[in-house]
């Protein structure tokens, strides 16, 4: 995953596990793009302190993901749901390929993907 995208996903899933102070600074750095100097001034800490806090938050969020794998499971589920959508509502670029899959084959693939989703969650 791209770093900013990864950070955002990890924060969305595990941010509530950080302290309020960590959340405030991390959100300002991540979502409001505040520099270390701006964070230091806003929160009355040093630039190094802001840097260290952000790194600790990143590390904590990654450790939560290593243990729980919620983001990984979410991304896999999202891909499968996307495939189900394509099977039920093909885009114009897929229309020429539709005869390759019969309705029965598409329904079987949808059932398979649905079973996989239910098993994972």
Please render the helix and strand layout as text.
Layout: H1 3-14, H2 20-30, H3 36-43, H4 47-68, H5 70-88, H6 103-120
Helix pairs in contact: 1-4, 2-4, 3-4, 5-6
- The SSE string, one letter per element, is HHHHHH
CATH class of the largest domain: Mainly Alpha
How many DSSP-defined strands?
A: 0
Task: Identify the CATH homologous superfamily of the largest domain.
Answer: Winged helix-like DNA-binding domain superfamily/Winged helix DNA-binding domain
The CATH architecture of the largest domain: Orthogonal Bundle
List low-confidence stretches.
none
Quaternary state, please?
Answer: single chain
**Overall 3D form:** elongated
The total number of structural domains is 2
The CATH topology name of the largest domain reads: Arc Repressor Mutant, subunit A
**Class of secondary structure makeup:** mainly alpha
Looking at this protein, list some descriptive labels.
121 residues; mainly alpha; 6 helices
Report on this model:
This protein has 121 residues and is mainly α. It has 2 domains: 3-68, Winged helix-like DNA-binding domain superfamily/Winged helix DNA-binding domain (Arc Repressor Mutant, subunit A); 72-120. It is built from 6 helices and no strands. Helix 5 (70-88) packs antiparallel against helix 6. The chain is elongated, with a radius of gyration of 21 Å.
Summarize the structure.
It is built from 6 helices and no strands. It is mostly helical and 121 residues long.
């Amino acid at each position: 995953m791209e770093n900013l995208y990864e950070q955002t996903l990890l924060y969305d899933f595990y941010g509530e596990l950080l302290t309020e102070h960590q959340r405030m600074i991390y959100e300002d750095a991540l979502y409001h793009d505040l520099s270390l100097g701006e964070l230091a001034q806003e929160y009355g800490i040093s630039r190094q302190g802001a840097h260290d806090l952000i790194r600790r938050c990143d590390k904590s969020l990654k450790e939560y993901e290593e243990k729980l794998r919620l983001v990984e499971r979410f991304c896999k589920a999202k891909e499968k749901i996307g495939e189900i959508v394509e099977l039920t509502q093909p885009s114009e670029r897929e229309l020429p390929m539709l005869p390759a899959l019969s309705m029965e084959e598409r329904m079987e693939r949808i059932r398979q993907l649905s079973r996989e989703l239910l098993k994972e969650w």
